[in-house]
Amino acid sequence: MIAYLLFVATLIAIYSILSLGLVISWGQAGLVNLGLVGFFGLGAYCSALLTKIGVPIGLAWIAAASLSSFVGVGLCLITRTLRGDYLAIVTLGFGEGLRLIELNERWLTGGSDGISGIRAPLKLELGDLFPWFYMALSWLIVIAACLVISRILKSPFGRALRAVRDDEKVAAVAGKSVLRLKCQAFGIGAGLFGLAGALYAHFISYISPDNFVLQLTIYIFLAVTAGGYSRLIGAVFGSFVVLTILESSRFAAEVIPGLSAVQIASLREFAIAVALILIMQLRPQGAFGMLNERAPPTRNANGASPSLAAKTGE
Amino acid sequence: MLTELTQYVLNGLVLGALIALPALGLSLIFSVQGFVNFSVAAQMTVGAYAAWLAGTYVGWSPYPMLLFAFVISGALGVICDRLALAPIRRQSGGQTALMLAVVSIALNLALENALRFIFGNSLNNFDMPIVRNFRLLGLSVGPQQIRNLVTALVITVALAAFFSLTRWGKAMRAVSDNPDLARLKGIDPRRLSNLATFLGMGLAGVGGSLLAIDTSVDPSTGSRLILIIFAASVVGGLTSLYGAVLGALFVGVAGEVALIWISPVYQSLTAFIAILIVLLVKPTGLFAGASGAKR
User: Fold this and answer.
1) Closest-CA residue in chain B for A259?
2) What is the mean pLDDT of chain B?
3) Is residue A80 part of a domain?
């Protein structure tokens, strides 16, 4: 039971990192990214393949986050002229396209067999303590990410991002480079997705294209909306809620007799999808709601443009 | 070589005619309601299952079967729209269209899994007599494929007549053109949006059934094609109905001809690249304005 709880706790941390990435790109900058599972997979495969050829794990994680971030900025640059709903279609296609590549480029990714035996840090040395260590490590990364991101979001850069989210034209008039801000937000988000993917790969020690399907994107959107889509604490809380629904439905399915494995799996996903619809309907602001994100009233000498941008904030 | 190329183009037209129907549905819903409804994919599967049930258990012939699929998908589409999406449309906020898109993906997932719960994951074939392919000048095409092509064309022509001749069709084009002006003329947007959803989802259902008659039906029948359908709709400009048909034929032919160089497993990827290129070169779509209704 302890082993199971540790497993779930680590997964919550990984989902939290994904949700934090979505909070930055969607909640703060208003860029919908339905391809987040693509970046997640990119990070996972990148790190797994690099450690296979002997690259140290820490370095592989950094590489995974950077590659994903780099690709994210590229995608953002390509799609710079697109409206929100077109961006949704393009990012969805991006995620699906990456999954097809993972599935069919067998020489690189092993195809549907996936990659097994991915090394985990200090697994041999720690033995039984390893699950505790990995959980602590994942949560340390979550905390570090939260601290860094909250600093970023409190800065003038964060206010400019929210200005872009709320009204691009006003932000541009206030002298902000909208494209640059978008790319930065999208890139930070994609980097976090990639890092989460790397963490996941070395935790599960086996990855295959089946791990990177559209459902995961829905889980993370649910996590972020459940927690209040612009809040960091909400992302962590929402990940907890999503995994609670996912895992408790596992037990609920055991209580109801006469269900096949396929039916149980479909019930779980049905529950998640309906939960997302209900939360969007009943409490679209999420559990934590939106903060008053105005700039602090006292300004220094060069504060003219941030205060203009901040007027468009919530 | 020329025969081979013609064969690919022919296959592309057959595929394009099939995806034209759901793409039309998607564009119709987008032009009246103003958001991308991803649950079109699941409604295709719903229609395919409805047709399969009617054909296998009740023993209906193909055309009543398609009509049944149309009504079931359309009605379920309207019910889901009222239950899941309408409350979100009423919320105010700058990102409503995006929220609706996200919720419609969740709706798609819910419907797909409801079907999986009821019918399981297995592939279900229609009990159709096996007929030899027609062969002409070295080209080969199945009779069912020809029937699909003709059915899709007939439905498209009927729709075109509906939009240019009837009161409701004209009202729908008016809303798609300018919603505020349409309201001033006394057009009720709510009833119209229900009608658009019914027609759009019904078309998706017919498209799904035609596809399933040609191959088979399982819970992911529609979702597997979602990128190609979106590509067709986007290439057509998302608000243009004739554009959606032209876009579908274009994407179908381009996807099949690309098979000369690219492995078939990457067909969705080809569609994605088509979306990207069209959006980059002409963000309004290649065939936008072909119907006179622009946004």
Assistant:
1) B117
2) 84
3) yes
Token readout for A76 is 């953002």
Q: Where are the beta strands (DSSP E) in chain A?
A: 115-116, 206-207
Q: What domain range includes position A141? A: 2-213
Q: Tokens at residue A268, please?
A: 């779980």
Q: What is the pLDDT of residues B235-267, one digit of tens each?
A: 888 877 788 888 899 888 888 888 888 888 887
Please state, in angstroms and rounded to a whole number, the distance separating the CA atoms of residues A293 and A160: 11
A289 to chain B, any CB pair closer than 8 A? The answer is: no
pTM of the model: 0.85
Return the H-helix or E-strand segment holding B229: helix B226-235
Q: Do A269 and B113 touch (CB under 8 A)?
A: yes
Which residue has 């904030």 as its token pair?
A313
Separation of alpha carbons B121 and A269, rounded Å:
14
The SS3 of residue B159 is helix
Domains along the sequence of chain B with CATH: 2-119+142-281 (1.10.3470)
Other CB atoms closer than 10 Å to residue A152's CB: what's the count?
16
What are the tens digits of pLDDT across the range B145-160? Answer: 888 888 888 988 888 8
Domains contained in chain A, number: 1
Q: Is residue A83 part of a domain?
A: yes
Cβ atoms of A68 and A39 within 8 Å: the answer is yes
In a domain, A253, yes or no: no
- CA-nearest residue to A75 within chain B is B276
Pairing of strands B134-136, B139-141: antiparallel
Instruction: State the Cα–Cα distance between residues A182 and A79, nearest whole angstrom.
Output: 11
